[in-house]
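Protein modeling request. Please complete all fields; requests missing the sequence field cannot be processed.
Requester role: graduate student
Desired output: 3D structure, C-alpha cell encoding
Chains: 1
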Amino acid sequence: MKKKPNDRSTLFLYGTRPGRVVLEIMLAMKVPAMLGFLLRTPLSIPAIKPFIRKNGINMDEWKGRKFHSFNDFFTRKKETVVFDPDPSHFISPCDSLLTSYDISQDSTFRIKGADYSLEDFFQDKETGKKFIGGKCLVFRLCATDYHRYIYSDNASLEKNHFIKGKLYCVQPLALEKLKVFTLNRRSWNIMHTENFGDVASVEIGAFSVGGIINHHENCSVKKGEEKGYFDLYGSTIAMLFEKDRISLLPEILGGLKDGEYRVKIGQWIAESF
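Delivered output (273 residues):
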C-alpha cells in the first residue's frame, strides 16, 4: 500500500520551522486538551455528520443511534467483533495501517527514520531485554478507523503502566521528524500469551487523544475480548515480541514492501514459529 500523504496542517506543523514553533506553543497551551474537552460536549454534535460524509464511514451497524458528542460517536462500540479463532493464528488487535520492524541485538529498532531503544520505550531498563532480537509490529490507527482494540490471543496480564507525555500526531511526517513513540503519552503492559510467548502491548496517544482506556490488568483474558479503546482521533498500538515467536503471513510481508499495509480487527496476520 502506498504511503498516504500527510494532511496540510501536518505538513506545516511538522515540516516547517515556523510550524514547529506554533506546534510547541499549542502543546504548551494545552490546545489538544482543550480540543478534547470540546469534542466531549454536545457542542460537538454538528461535527459528526460532516465527518462521516467526508470519510465515507459505513454507519449501518449504528443506524438510528443518537450520539451525545463527537467523542461518543468516535468511541462507538460494535455489537460483535468477528475474529479468526485458530489458536496458532495471531490476529490484528485493531483496524489500522501495519508496519513491522526488527529489534536489533543492541536493543534498538528504527521506525520511520528514527532510532528507538527498548529502555526509552518502557522507561525501564529490564523490561525490554526479553525482546532483543525480536519483532515490533506497529498498528497506526487513522482518524476514520474503529478505535477499540482486542486481545490477539488468550493471555495472563501483568499490571498496566502509564507514562505521561506529549500528544504529537502520528502521521508519517511527524514520525520522521520526532521520536513520537517515546515522547507521547502511552500505556503498556506485558501479556503472557498461550501461543506467542511474552508480548508487550504499548498503546500510544496522539494529538487530541487524551484518553487511553484499558479494561484489565493482573488477570486472565480471552482472544477476541475487548482490551480497551482510544478517545478522539488517530493513535497507535506497538506490539513487541520475543525472538522467533511469530512469522508474518507471506501476503502481509509482500504488502509491507510498499509501505504500510491495511489490516482489519480480528484478521489473521501472523502465525507462531
